[in-house]
Amino acid sequence: MTENIAVELSNVGKRFMRHADRRNTLKERLVRGRSRSTQDFWAVRNVDVNIPKGSVYGLIGHNGSGKSTLLKLITGIYRPNEGRIVTDGRVAALIELGAGFHPDMTGRENIRLNGSILGLSKTEIESAMETIIDFSGLREFIDDPVKHYSSGMYVRLGFSVAVHMQPDVLLVDEVLAVGDEEFQRKCFDHLYTLRRAGRTIVVVSHGLGQLEGLCDEVAWLDHGTVQEIGPATEVIGSYLQRVNAQEAKANADIAATRDDTTMRAGNGTIRSTGARLIDAQHTAINHAETGSTFGIEVDLHCHEEVLGPNVRLAFQHETGSLVTMMSNHRQGVDFGHVNGDHTVTALLTDNPLLPGRYRVHIDIFDHTGSVLIDNWDDALEFTVRSPRGEIGQGFVELSYTYEIS
Amino acid sequence: MIRELYRQRALVAAFANRDFATRYRASVLGWVWSLLQPLATLLVYAAVFSLVFRIQAPPLGSDPDRTNFAAFLFTGMVTFNLFSGLLMLSMTQLKSNGELLRKVHFPAWTPILGASVVQLVQVALELIVLIAMFLWLGNIGVTWLLAVPVLIATAMFGQGIGLMLSVVNARYGDVQYIVQVVLQALYFLTPILYPLSLVEGTADWLAAIVKANPLTWFVETMHQVMYSLVVPQWWVIPGLLAVGFAVFWAGFTIFNRSSEDIGELL
Question: Which residues in B have their CB inside 8 Å of a CB on A?
Fold first, then answer.
């Protein structure tokens, strides 16, 4: 194992037996004999992953791709049937928060119990006690039995104990989706603090946007084997492409009806029939880059003459936030009388959008802005990448100058 | 093994503390209730077996002209309960801590031994009652000191078997019911409710079974040192300790070897 590797997985495989075929009682075992072990399946196999020290490492993949199994293998709850796992330093897992809390014991007693289970010594627990209580924000209730806690309070206490055990490697499995907004932010802040302190963090999540911002490297698992390993943006990009392709295939029929102009809202005097991403030379492209020029072309078909329509393009980030709304009326551009087929082009110079996935919704209003003519949700979806491989925070990079005086 | 046990003492203590809290915190009289069941059993058995079946206990060590069936019976009961209590409790621990073992990686035997610590406190309470009984009878002797190694041997014996069976029970959930029945049979095949001399006069095969029952060795030695106040032959107590330690060591080793995948078994 090289010095700067925190977790090394070499050719790791884990086999499970199908539950239906297991003998759960001695009686069954005696009556039905030894189970035929042909029902085995490999939850993960041939996994080679090296997680560098001080990095944030993401694991992505569809449900059942083996992400959580891999985390359990790293913590040692499961042992691999094949291969080897070497970890350097103390491993703590945020797999199930508050596992092992006893309802009849007070919060304080449970901190002691949970701390011991996670491997802390008595003195370590006592010295961290006040910090844990403060972090959980439950000082008022800490001497009440946890059976009177709400589920949110339960999880907060669990998280507080787990992150304060000073792990060298912290494994996080989808647990960040718990607690209220304030506590979630606190958790993220803490993860960033741990990251700055040089701890290694392994995250399993379906929040790809979150992962892209948090992770240095990502491994993409598919049916238990590694598909791709690399920088977060790249791997997430190709994962999304795969998912989109599969979705497109599976949803071909649904898409047909959705894009079917007769199914849309609006009076239908104009329909947008196509939309695509283009570069400065008006050639179709697959993705946009931060800082360079790109545009969106929308094909319109007018069934009758319309005066001064407003064609609006709404950009929605993958997290669901509306980033911006572009429209010709806002730009003071009047299309005048339109009829027949047209192509509307919106060109963005110095694209300020930061790397991520964006969706474009197209709607058309009449010149008064009160009558909806056409509405096309999810007309277009595209990825923005950064040529420099940076990620950045938020959605956009504004142009600005900095000064100190 | 010893080093491993010592290293995890804080965790065992934490589990003991947890089980302690749940077992006795519920009511102030928790301690009293925990003694009620063995004392009630003692009362019923003592009445039935001495008054109805007219079973005679051997003479008391302090006064060969007197006997006391209840004291004789309780000596055996405490010893047997130490064994069976540890065994039964250990066997179910993996199941009851399953949630935790599936999610966190820690030595799986720690909750078992934690529960056993609490069980030992229960046994200590019963011992206090037993000693009080003998004090009241005036049946006191230095041979009492020998009870300590015998009890330690009994505890290790029961714990060792408990550790082995706990893994089997985690895999096959019905094992605990089978063990319960076997323990009940063992109870009557051990000279607890009757002196050993009683079976020696009956069928040879029955006497052979009772004598071959390892629990007979532990219970009989306890009878000797606590009730009859005689020193057993020199090799008996070292022998029991050796058996107890060997079984505990075997149980611990087997447990550790087969419990590595316990998280996915539960």
Answer: 10-11, 13-15, 17-18, 21-22, 25-26, 99-106, 172-175, 178, 260-261, 263-264
Q: Which of B23, B99, B104 to mutate: most A Cβ within 10 Å?
A: B104
Closest-CA distance, A312 to chain B, in angstroms, reads 50
| 8 Å CB contact of A104 and B175 | no
Please report the sign of the dihedral spanned by the C-alpha atoms of residue A369, residue A375, residue A377, residue A379. Answer: negative
Tell me if B21 and A29 make a contact (CB, 8 A cut-off): no
CA of A23 vs chain B CAs: smallest distance (Å):
7
A169-183, A263-277, A349-363, B193-207: least confidently modelled range? A169-183
Interface test with A, best of B103, B110, B265 (most A CBs within 10 A): B103
Give the gap in angstroms from C-alpha A399 to the nearest C-alpha of chain B. Answer: 48
For the segment B109-123, what is each residue's pLDDT rounded down to a tens digit? Answer: 999 999 999 999 989
Instruction: Identify the pLDDT of residue B86.
Output: 95
Q: Cα–Cα distance between A370 and A98 in angstroms, integer?
A: 53
The whole-angstrom separation of Cα A154 and Cα A138 is 10
Please determine, for residue A246, whether its predicted confidence score (pLDDT) is greater than 90.
Answer: no
A202 burial via Cβ count (<10 Å: 0-12, 13-18, 19+): buried
Percent of chain A with pLDDT over 90: 5
**Residue A105 · residue B21 · CB < 8 Å:** yes
Averaged pLDDT for residues B16-26: 77
All structural domains of chain B with their residue ranges: 2-265
Q: Tell me the pLDDT of chain A averaged across its residues.
A: 82
By CA distance, what is B23's nearest residue in A? Answer: A104
Q: Hey, are the CB atoms on A99 and B172 less than 8 Å from each other?
A: no
pLDDT digits (tens, 9 = 90+) for A301-317: 888 888 889 999 999 98
- Greater confidence (A119 vs A328) lies with A328
As its CATH architecture, domain A263-385 has Distorted Sandwich (2.70)
Edge-to-edge order in the sheet of strand A40-52: A40-52, A5-17, A82-87
Q: Where are the domains of chain A?
A: 5-245, 263-385
Identify the contact set of chain A against chain B, taking CB-CB distances under 8 A. 16, 23-27, 29, 72, 75-79, 93, 95-96, 99-100, 102, 104-105, 109, 112-113, 116-119, 121-122
pTM strictly above 0.90:
no
| Angle, helices B236-258/B147-171, rounded to nearest 10 degrees | 20
Task: Determine the residue type at B24.
Answer: Y
CA distance linking residue B265 with residue A308, whole number of Å? 70
Chain B: give the shortest CA distance to residue A235, in Å: 29
Q: Which CATH number fits domain A5-245: 1.10.10.10, 3.40.50.300, 3.30.870.10, 3.40.50.980?
A: 3.40.50.300
Whole-angstrom distance, CA of residue B232 vs CA of residue B143: 9
Per-residue pLDDT tens over the stretch B38-54: 888 888 988 888 888 88
Q: Judge whether residue A150 has pLDDT over 70.
A: yes
Q: Which of A19-23, A82-86, A345-349, B108-112 has the lowest average pLDDT? A: A19-23
ipTM field: 0.75
- The reported pLDDT for the residue numbered B163 is 94
